Amino acid sequence: MSTFLNILVVGLLLGGIYGLVSIGLNLIFGVIRIVNFAQGELVMLGMYGAYFSYWLVGMDPYVSILVVVPALFVFGVLIQRFILQPLQNESMMQIFATFGLLLLLQNVILAITRGTGYTVPTDLSTVVIDIAGLKISLVRLIALFAVTAVAVGMSWFLKNTLPGKAIRAVTQDRRAARLMGINVELTFMLTFGMGAALAGLAGTLLAPIYTMSPQIGGNFILAAFAVVVLGGLGSVWGAFIGGFIIGLIEALAGYYLDPALKHAVWFLVFIAVLIVRPGGLFGIAGAEEVGLREQH
Amino acid sequence: MSSIEIPMAMSGRAAPGITTFRVELVRILVLSLILLGLAWVYGKNPFILNILAYTFLFAGLSSAWNIIGGFGGQFSLGHGVFFAIGAYLTANLYLHFQISPWLALVPAAALAAVVAAAVSWPTFRLKGPFFAIATMAFNEVAFVLANYFETLTGGPRGLSLPFKAGLANMIFTNRFSYALLMLGFLVACLLVSAAVLRSRFGYYLQAVREDEDAARAAGIRVLQVKLLGMALSAALTGIGGALFAMYLRFVDPPTLLSLPDIGVKFALIALIGGVGTLYGPLAGALLIVPVESYLRAELGGMVPGTNLIVLGAVLILFALFMKRGLIGAGTALWQRLTSARPEGGGGG
Amino acid sequence: MIGTVTRRLVLGMSAAVALSLAADTQVQAQETFKIGAINPYSGPMALYGDEVTRGYELAAEALNAKGGILGRKVEIVRGNAASPQEGIAAVEQLAGRDNVDVFIGTYLSAVSAAASEAAMNYQKLYWDTNALAANLTERGLPNFARSGPYAVSFADQSVELVTGLLAEALGKEPKDLKVWIEHEESIYGTSIADRQKEQLEKAGVQVVGMGAHSAKAIDLTDSILRARDAQPDIWINTGYVPDGNLLLRTARDQGFKPGAMVLVGTGDTRETLEALGAESLEGILIVSYPRPDVTEQYGPGSQAYLEAYRAKYGQDPLAPQSMTAFVGLKIMAEAIEAAGSAEPEAVIEAAKKMDKPLNTYETGYGAKFDDHAQNVRTPPTVVQWQNGKVVTVFPVAAAGGNKLVAVGKQ
């Protein structure tokens, strides 16, 4: 029984990590309808940003959030403005461009670092909370709290602020939003900026957990896509809960079946759920259709 | 795009501005002679020949992908699965039963088609990016399974095919023969694509791409059309996988089921050339495969990753300045030259 | 580091860099002995591909100082290959265009398999220094030889460590020892782990479990918990750096502390120290390529090698693979000199006549090739983390005064 509890805790903590890397992707995917292949690379940049801040001035990764998140926000806005906005209504070419971005970012970092695996040291990384034999790593727990805070903050932002309302309006109907005087391009830039900033946040929070490599984004991206689609496009809580579902399946399948098969198991569950509910678990029914139709 | 002609085209007669299959046949013949000439000119240069062979193979594979991905609008990123099926089946038949790879092409195509239809049946409920992501997930499942269940795939060790040169074994000592082989595959894929594009079935596929509901209202059995398109596309991809296995004489999961090198690349090449056009995939492969090889050869020895930095930048710039691919850009240019009307858009 | 650039490359480079290089390469364009070095220089393994080729470059410099190979100045030309098909392309490029005399490589076994067959088409030697897969030499390819250790060498050395030094330190007979074998799931981890299981069981050791994991996994707690449940005395893992680090952290977090933890292949670099800290790493053993800190009696010249590396690249080697690559090229040069040409059959014939005892080269290797042209005198060494430093502890001759610490306390 205690083993089972332990696995559940492991799965929940892992779910927090998955949710964290997915929430920014969900925003971009849900609002701008871009399949951003380079989202994993934005997370990777966040990790290297944390390392760079440490290397330069000895900054703790949790402090470097203050630097990395705004930097990635700006970077995201620039990507949207100069790469994706010109490709509006060319959704296939947008995918293509994000793939080019993926290659570019990965290899720029590779060229700079030669591929050396860095880890950002923080005093917190060795702290383990022991609750009746359940071992909880503090850095992972922080990631779990962070994703919860982000989900709460995001849904508040979308519901109660003017830019948030603009984002929701644009999500529902681009044309009508434009007619109502909303600057759609500006909203998209804000959205992509926020998506990139969230990736940066994920990166800094994960930097003390993983040994980073230029390719590490690729380890997250498929899982993130699965979480987003499973939870439901454009649903903040969908990505949050989707992360836990994938995390729990992975932990259970890994422990009780075989660690070598766990990815196959959750991909299969993912496909199965999607076939039964094509809109994802918490997506609005028919949301998946909207992505296809061209919006002007 | 050419959605408007659909009802007319069903009469079987060509609409104005749309070429007949016979015209395409002549074009393909001329093209293949040009490509053959190219291979012949570089007949003494194995470095170029190898790049050409690889270009032809991927042009063929991308054309095969284009049947469902371009004509049918189903953006599959899981074609690596069918590619791997062809490769593994051929390798197994050759290793364990000494069956000539030429004969193995038939079951390779058949098995790939059957698996494609079975897998797509449920997946076709999904649309657009959702479909793409689900097919990508299939690719990952296939990777894990191929690595885990070793009996048929050799697991992580892969399968090595012993070097026994000979036409019957589809193993050659010179790169020219491989270039010819891949060119043959490319021509076959182009012919099938042309036949599909100019057939009733092809118009059904395009109708489904443009508007599924409208197609259904017009009496098209949408699911059936999509399944058939997928099966045909997968069959050709399976054959391509078989040829790849004999060219490499080594198959393992990272080589066959790598998303960036295989599954995504088919779609990428088609996008570069012009997705949904007959010659787009060929144009895309003729551009990107040599560029990639050249960059790797010239910049590969420098600071790690330089060649891919340049490639990534090239892809982004390409997307920005040729939104409709090479064929689209070419068509637009042609139209601007022949008439003053500035109308964009690629051929159907 | 760009000393190997050919003249063609000039086209693709900025003018300033190009000018200085062009002047450099034109002088030696004639009559150089060109060695095509096939390794990944992009992608996830780029660091190691680059590190291996640095070993070749240092060896080339050392050879040139003594007159080169067959009286010709040695030049290394890089061929970038991160996958088998790129391996073939690299061979076509290096042989067809750059006209290299021989090939050398390869960090990745799959690339070696495809590239060496392609090299056969040109009747050129493919000399492998670093690939690990056992089947490479078993193919009996007439142009192929391997001068460095391979999967079997690593597996056997780790088994010897378990049944010898560790059994003694843990105060148990081999038959009472319980071992968990963990490995990453690609060919590298799998082939070493399978051989470990076979040899451990042959020695009577109880293998209480075996686990495979993906090197790209986000979480490896399941792997650690399964191992912890089996309560092994010794836990062995063969993997890469990121997954190895994640496993060690998870083991620490989950309180999994068997009598001894052994890593194979990686884990002896700063990358691991930075991730875990000296305290957590204390006592962890690594079976790896010999490092420059082996004693002078064990690896004569190893200190000089380290200094040459520092002088050329301005840092310490990031991975120990480069010294094995360095030695590999030296052995190849000796075989070519003995054969009097670079013709593959003659070189391999000459290699098979070599009989250098252990401790001849910087890595402590000797040279004695078996029927499949595999050098059988290439023992990996065992190092241990002690106070944040890696020290060689096994074989004893390589260790000098170093002793095993922190094993079995628990």
Explain what you see.
In chain A, helix 3 runs antiparallel to helix 8 and helix 6 packs across helix 8. Chain A has 12 helices and 2 strands; from the N terminus they run ααααββαααααααα. The C terminus of chain A is likely disordered. Chain A is mostly helical and 296 residues long. Chain B has 348 residues and is mainly α. Chain B has a two-stranded antiparallel ribbon. The N terminus and C terminus of chain B are likely disordered. With 410 residues, chain C is an alpha/beta fold. In chain C, 43% of the residues lie in helices and 16% in strands. Chain C contains 14 helices and 12 strands. Chain C has a 7-stranded mixed beta sheet, with helices on both faces. In chain C, strands 2-1-3-4-5 form a 5-stranded parallel beta sheet, sandwiched between helices. The termini of chain C are far apart. The chains are: A mainly alpha (296), B mainly alpha (348), C alpha/beta (410). Chains in contact: A-B, A-C, B-C. Chains A and B meet through helix 4, helix 9 and helix 11 of A and helix 6, helix 13 and helix 15 of B.
Helical content of chain A (DSSP H or I, runs of 4+): over 70%
What sort of overall outline of chain C do the alpha carbons produce when their principal axes are compared?
globular
The percentage of residues in β strands of chain C lies in 15-25%
Q: Name the largest protein-protein interface in this structure.
A: A-B, 49 and 43 residues
Average pLDDT of chain A works out at: 89
On the 0-100 scale, what is the average pLDDT of chain C?
Answer: 89
Report the oligomer. heterotrimer
Decide which structural class fits the backbone of chain A: mainly alpha
What count of helical segments of chain C does DSSP give?
Answer: 14
| First-last Cα distance of chain A | 55 Å
Secondary-structure-derived class of chain C:
alpha/beta
Largest sheet of chain C: 7 strands, mixed
Number of strands of chain C: 12
What Rg of chain C is obtained from the alpha carbons, in whole angstroms?
A: 21 Å
Amount of helix of chain C: 40-55%
How many strand segments of chain A? Answer: 2
N-to-C terminal Cα separation of chain C, in Å? 47 Å
| Low-confidence segments of chain A | 289-296
Radius of gyration of chain A: 19 Å
